[in-house]
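It would be a great kindness if you could assist me with a short task in structural biology. I am sending you one protein, given as its amino acid sequence and as whole-number tokens for its backbone shapes. I would ask you to consider whether the tokens describe a fold that such a sequence might reasonably adopt. The full record is reproduced below for your convenience.
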Amino acid sequence: MSQTPHHPRDPFEAARKSTGTMCVHAQGVDVPLILRYPDLRAALKDWETYSSDDLRNIVLHGEQGVRDGRQYPIETDPPEHKAYRKIVDPFFRRPLDNDYRVGMQQLLDDAIQVALGNEIDAIHDFALPVQSKSLAMMLNVDMAEADEWVGWGTHVFYDGDGKSKGDALTDYNRAQFAKTAGSGGDDFYSVLNRAEYDGRPLTDEEKLGFANLAFAGGRDTVIGTITGILAHLGDEPDVLEFLRADEKRLSPATEEYLRFISPVTVLARKCPHGATVGDQAVPPGGRAGVCYASANYDETVFPDPHQLKLDRSPNPHIAFGFGKHFCLGAHQARLIIRCLLLSLCDKVSRVEIIDAVTKSEKEVEYTREIGFEKLSVRLHAK
């Protein structure tokens, strides 16, 4: 993750400084991206102008080809969004519980212990199992289910050659809801089977929408963040000593990794009444993009944004969004990262990078480094 003059994680710098916007072509139309931090926060607060109520269009190029239903609660707006979010919020707040945090630390300690001394595929042998097992913890389902989830690979909607596999996720979730019907359990599926919205039971479409988001929302982002951290520690061996010297450094380091890696580049919003983004008019029903990755490098907010400063303070990054649609999984992601860093400090003397092939998100208008196609490492024991 060493920096180069073209800042591979920030291809928006020139446009952000000059106009504050960048226009990309997606789904047959021009979509202006909001690049500056203050403008992005304002847009994310203004859900009436920049709406999330846009079926299968929360990402720039849409997901019409990989899923049928709506993702709940992310593809809804207030006041419906608040009511839907309340249904699943207890699961996504579990990482705030002390016993849960102890269990997460044990999960990361075990994963590091198994990896010590061996050459490992940091993506498939480490980050993917950690993400899947931590999700099983949060959803309060049998940990054995994570073994099947690992087999789905790093993306739940696409396989390695880009073919859609969204139906397999739907089939899996349908089977789990059927299996737990009437069970009275406290797992994710049982709770949703009993849940109500506006005084009525959830529909099958709503239950599937919650489950779809739970599996898709934090998968590749968590995997990308874990591997990005391992790569940085391999590039900068003194960082582990810096973190090891004071456990209080782990929390600001967590936030800086989130800002610097910015696992979500851009999300899309529908403009029901139209909008003006920079000098571009968005027609009623048109779309705009909120570019988290650019806002997190806004030099007016983050001095020396292309430097990874693990003691950066303040650090009001926007990696989890802002406003009503602030990421449901933020507590989980933060806990995973902090537990990972603590376990590495306790058990690992250095991270050796054996092979690394970066991965990029490519549009006609920009190319952004977002992680790794391949990352092989060896974790040397203390």
